[in-house]
Amino acid sequence: MNETIRITNQLAIRSILLGVVFFAVAFFVYPSLQFLLVCFLLNCFLAFIFSVRGNITVARLLLCAPNAVLGNIAIAYLMPDGQPIYASLIVIQLTFFMTPFVLYSYSERFYLFANAIFVGALIMLFPYLNNAFHGDFDTETFKSGYMQYVCFGVILVFLTDSLFLFLHANHKFRERNSVWIEESNQKNAELENARQDIENTLLEVQKAHKEDEKRTWIANGLAQGAAILRQSADNEQQMFDDMLLFIVKYLNANQGGLYLVEGHDDNDLHISLKSLYAYERKRHQQRRIEIGQGLLGRCYLEQETIFLKDVPQNYTQITSGLGAATPTCITIVPLKLNDAVEGLLELASFQVLEAHEVEFLERLSETLASSIRNAHVTQRTQTLLARSQEQAEQMRQQEEMMRQNVEELQATQEEMMRTQQVMATKEANLQALLNNIEAAVVSVDKDYHLLTINKRMREMYRSKGVQLTEGVNILKQLSAEEAADRKEQFDKALSGESFSFTERVISPVTKEPAYFDIAFMPIYDENENIIGLTSMSKNVTEAQNLRQEIERKKSMLEAVINAYDDNILVLDRGYNVVLVNKGYRERYKQMGIEYYDGMNVFQVIAADAREEWKGYYDRTLAGETYAFTLEYKDAQGNPLRRQYAFYPIYGEGNRSIIGLALINRLLN
After folding, report:
1. Is 189 exposed, middle or buried (0-12, 13-18, 19+ CB in 10 A)?
2. Pairwise CA distance, residues 470 & 443, whole Å
């Protein structure tokens, strides 16, 4: 627009100068033609005024049609009637014919050809103008005199200058086009980088979310398994059946078996079936398996999980009323505690277990092995205690036979010593178990006296300058502020509530923040009475830092896209808003529409337009990249053009589309 105004201004000035030259000639030679030249000069001056004020449509029309009419009338006055027009005057007519081609571009071809046809018609109808206008002038000078050279010279200068003006304008236009193309390419590259950053952020968020889901799934399974073991602690067989049923259903398996290692003599050591779920009878007619026999015997010797996906046809079958089929996956996990295998867990399923499901089985196997060992120790202790009580009763009834039964009494004392050693071993094993788990564990009674503490918890308080030993009141060893917080948490657990939270602390060594997941659970006796509580603390600093890093990257990405003038909106496959930049929010906020992360985009789209925009989104989610332009008017009635560009967003490895990006920009 500015370039068109500049060309129109300059051509108006050149036309004024041309009119001044011919006016000077007419003043001395043809005074009667001065009124036509005055009209010509006034018309050019009006065109210049309109062009300066921005009304270039009127300005260019004035420079074309009226000037051509005035010029041809002047030539008609000069030419004698019935004679061929002089070459010098033909040049002037061609000058008027060339004027539209300088003022208009091909995109304005209607005005270009309309003016050219009008001027051409004047030239073709010149004989009629010649008959209509008569002048008594000496025009030989236009044919062979000095006016012929004046016309040729002036018109040649005018045409050469106009041609240079036209070429200079085209050169400037090409230069601006080159700059626009370069800026467009640069913005496209920046948008591509932003799109890649969005994809990477989405992938990281999805990956972290999946990992959190797996950890939560494992933690929930372990908690439910622990609850089953606690509820069935009094009945060993019920505990085995309930635990196997829970594991099979929690993993969506099809069959399962639970085996224990029995026999106190190495010559009689064997594996015995204790519980089944959905196995055919023929498969388990033999309930005793020797050490080293089959996959179960091998798993016992190697003490490692066996994960078999290529199952032999004759190994086992999963049957139903409609038929039978070989399972896809066989998993055998040793129930191991302190390098000692207490039993084996076998699962068969059509679905191959994932890594986190196998990890869940291995972690749960430690808890189950501990319960099995505790049950065995308790059973043996109860047996020995009953035997000891029976012997004591016999001693009270047979005091007269005491001397004769000294040897039997000594044997009983030795048995009691062995019982005490077993109890000591049990306590040592329990302490070793606590010391080997990843979490820091402490348990207290209802008076806040320390019952047990593992190595990690002891070291954690030692780093704070607190030395904890069994039997002390733990609250008296802490600072007043920490003791008040812990007492509130202890009382909450002693009231029967199990809860957990994440705590942020500053390391006294590194002076860096650390994060711990802390859980509190009440301890019940055999009568379901609360006798104390257990607290577990696990360092989750790495996971917390990962979440903070993801949030930081998301904030940086939002800052990047907010720096663009273009409006950017990112949706997932459910049409929910993932990211929206500042420009997009502010543009629609002016319309009374509020965009925020997580909302469904159809909440703010008019009902009659939802199907249309859903079609655009679905095309993009199908893998298509495209753009279109909409034209409308602003509040002042000015025409506006806005471009809408749609880009699919691919997931990891570009194998699947996880969302789309919509970028719209104002073109004018």
Report:
1. exposed
2. 10
Residue 505 · residue 513 · CB < 8 Å: yes
Beta bridge partners of 258: 275, 345
H helix intervals, 29-86: 34-52, 56-78
Beta pairing class for 450-453 and 657-666? unpaired
First to last CA, the chain: 12
Of 467, 450, 459, 464, nearest in space to 535 by CA = 450
Pair 244, 256: CB distance under 8 Å: yes
Chain-centroid distance of CA 288 in Å reads 54
Tokens of 533: 């509580």
Query: Buried b / exposed e across 451-468, counting CB within 10 Å, b at 16+?
Result: bbbbebbbebbeeeeeeb
Angle at 441 between CA 437 and CA 445, to 5 degrees: 145
Q: Could you report the per-residue pLDDT of 400-455, keeping only the tens digit for each?
A: 676 666 677 777 777 777 777 776 676 666 666 666 777 888 888 989 898 888 88
List CB contacts of 485: < 8 A, sequence separation 6 or more: none
How far, in Å, are 34, 91, 124, 136 from residue 86 at the CA level? 21, 9, 15, 16
DSSP-assigned letters across all residues of 116-151: HHHHHHHHHTHHHHHHH-------HHHHTSHHHHHH
Give me the residue label for tokens 């789209």: 605
What SS3 class is residue 563? coil
By CB atoms closer than 10 A (0-12, 13-18, 19+), residue 401 is: exposed
What is the per-residue DSSP string for 474-538? Answer: GGGGS-HHHHHHHHHHHHHHHTT--EEEEEEEE-TTT--EEEEEEEEEEEE-TTS-EEEEEEEEE
Which two tokens mark 289? Answer: 């398996």
| Chain segment 106-138, per-residue pLDDT in tens | 667 777 777 777 777 777 777 777 666 666 665
The Cα–Cα gap between 242 and 223 comes to 14
CB 661 within 8 A of CB 647: yes
Q: Is residue 644 within 8 Å of residue 549, measured between CB atoms?
A: no
Quick check: 353 and 307 in contact, CB under 8 A? yes
CA distance 569 to 588: 12
The winner for highest mean pLDDT among 20-24, 78-82, 168-172, 195-199 is: 195-199
Lowest mean pLDDT among 53-57, 174-178, 658-662: 174-178
Of 506, 504, 494, 507, nearest to 535 by C-alpha is 494
For residue 576, the 8-state DSSP code is: B
- HSE (CB half, 13 Å, CA atoms) of 85? 23
Instruction: Please give the angle made by the CA atoms of 295, 296 and 299, to the nearest 5 degrees.
Output: 85
Specify the residue for token string 């001056």. 45
Site of tokens 């047990």: 452
CB 467, CB 450: distance < 8 Å: no
Burial environment of residue 435 by CB neighbours within 10 A (0 to 12, 13 to 18, 19 or more): middle
Spatial CB neighbours of 203, under 8 Å, sequence gap ≥ 6: 651, 652, 658
The vertex-219 CA angle with 362 and 597, nearest 5°, equals 135
Long-range CB contact pairs, 184-187, < 8 A, 24+: 187/566
**In the sheet where 440-445 sits, what is the strand order?**
450-453, 440-445, 530-539, 513-524, 499-506
Residue 225, pLDDT score: 81
Cα gap 10→161, rounded to integer Å: 10
Q: Scan for tokens 């081609």, then name that residue.
A: 101
